[in-house]
Amino acid sequence: MNIKNYIRALFDSDWRFCRLAARGFYNWLPDDLYLKRLFKAKMGYELNLEDPQTFNEKLQWLKLYNRKAEYTAMVDKYEVKKLVAEKIGEEHIIPTLGVWNKFDDINFDSLPNQFVLKCTHMGVIICKDKSSFDRRKAKKQINYWMKKNNYWAGREWVYKDITPRILAETYMTDESGFELKDYKAFCFNGGCDLIDYKFMCFNGKVEYVFTCSERYSSTGLKVTFFDRNWLLQPFERHYQKSEDNIPKPKNFESMVNLAEKLAKGVPFLRVDFYECNGNVYFGELTFYPGNGFEEFSPFEYDMKLGKLIKIK
Fold this sequence. Notes:
Strand order of the largest sheet: 7-6-5-9-10
Helix content: 25-40%
Shape: globular
């Protein structure tokens, strides 16, 4: 620890709690007490679980009190494909190339030159050229993920009982050569700009959509919000919005319809889709975006979106 962080650890109790929590020092705390302390440290105001008002507060409430067994399969990157195919059709599913329990079981000879590796509970690695793919680096990263349980950091209980597995998918690009998926930071052969569409469903209805773009730009990821009619919204959440004009996707209305089918009966659910060569592909489902710890600017939208979640 450098001297600056040492001094901060001595005098900033919120910073100290967040650092220690990330290392598992507070795993012994019950979920409600842990979330109250972490929420205050990250958000700057007390978490009111008795009468939650803001969007971020209600996500914490849902973590604690809206626990249905089927939610776990909905966030398992392999199991969710079966559920989604049953509800909206197999044509919206990115093809699976294989599933394994450990990295050494993967038969790379059977995989195409380009493919995607995912942990069913964690992150993503892509291979654009098998001949130059760094298997040792990929193995190290995946083995690290396989040992992690996403539950502890933010008490997202839906991840606690997922069986960690490794999933291979088809690597997909559109007609311009851009990647279909948002492959985060683990693109070993470089990255390109891409957009994914995240539909915020409140009580089964799409109210807002946001896009993630410019991940590889010098200024970093941009998150831009729109309403159901694709009108640009005047707020941000944690990340700055893009200055570029982001066009409405061609299949927008179809995406809205599909998202609402998947979100039916759920107080809040984020549904991700991608467009590729005129088709709509399912990305993932997320119950607690940003773990419920990302600030809105202006703050009034934390309240405004919070009112849309009906919990009682």
